[in-house]
Amino acid sequence: MEITQLEMTPVQMRAHSHLGETKVDEPVKSFGEFLTDALKQTNELQLESDRLNAALAAGRIEDVSQVVVAAQKAEISVQLALQLRNRAVSAYQEMMRMQV
Description:
The protein is mainly alpha-helical and 100 residues long. The protein has two helices and no strands.
């Protein structure tokens, strides 16, 4: 009697919820993609704020609240990006201090 080797194949989950809460074949983004998208959005908010500031200075905008809201959105977005950067640097420095 010959004994054959077991073949290990990856198991794929194929369960589907009848309540509709599972999504099928949704592409998974990597951390780098999330970070890139967040930085692009931050840049877009900053550019929009700059555009509205220039339009206000030129007298093309009568509602100043639009400019203020855009500036605050851009500022909050930049502050979030800075805090994420600070946390990432702090985590990196902590890992470098670890003795292996």
